[in-house]
Amino acid sequence: MSSLVAIFQWIVASLSIGLYSFYTVFLYSLFPRRPWVRHSNRFFCRWILFLVRVHVQIEGLEFVDPKKVYVICSNHQGMFDTFAINGLIPQPMTWLSKPGYFKIPFVGWVLWASRHVLVTRTDKERDRQAIALAVEQLHHGIPMAVFPEGTRSRDGTLGPFKFGAFRMAKESGCWVLPVVLHGSGEKLKKGEWKVRSGTIRMVILPPIDPKNLSVEELCDKTHQMTLETLNRLS
């Protein structure tokens, strides 16, 4: 029975992603800089979470000022992290994304159309241009979301943070919004295809003003806040 449920979830999710990709490409081609277009992504992400029966328990939402533009920095444990952040945080964000995601059918179309920023982490010149593009988007009022670990944690422990997100914050003057996710890695482990329904915990921490901090200090402070919160949730 559980296998039939999983097959149904994947079929409906695949159809939803396909339909949403056409819808998104069409809207972004007509209204490329309209924030309300990005808000439609929130409803889609919530639908996917509902479909796979993953509930997000959130705290700290009062720290999000809808009038501010943030660099959103989150730890990365599982596949549903992006859906949780997009669906629950009321910010019309774009992401720093790895090249592989742009090659996925339908998903890649949405990323290109919605102007997510491709970062290679191997080509320094291209990555400098990517950071400059992200800063430009921040100046246009579009929040940027980043997984500063650079990859998904295999065991839920917090890895070191890379500096890119914090350079964006310093250059743009935008505050860093730390987000901590716990329990998402257990919902769909690497190499498996059955989703484990349940709850993901999301904690939004107080934003950090980059003004009087260096890039390294900003990175260290965000990492320490994230680590302390993860330890509390574990």
Walk me through what this model shows.
A seven-stranded mixed sheet has the order 1-7-6-2-5-3-4, sandwiched between helices. The longest helix has 29 residues, at 2-30. The protein has helices at residues 2-30, 35-51, 81-88, 99-102, 107-113, 124-139, 164-172, 215-233; strands spanning 54-59, 70-74, 94-97, 117-118, 144-146, 175-182, 198-204. By secondary structure, the protein is α/β, with parallel strands linked by helices. The chain is 47% helix and 15% strand.
The first-to-last residue Cα distance is: 31 Å
CATH topology: Glycerol-3-phosphate (1)-acyltransferase
CATH architectural category: 3-Layer(aba) Sandwich
Give average pLDDT, whole number. Answer: 86
SSE diagram, text form:
Elements: H1 2-30, H2 35-51, E1 54-59, E2 70-74, H3 81-88, E3 94-97, H4 99-102, H5 107-113, E4 117-118, H6 124-139, E5 144-146, H7 164-172, E6 175-182, E7 198-204, H8 215-233
Parallel strand pairs: 1-7, 2-5, 2-6, 3-4, 3-5
Antiparallel strand pairs: 6-7
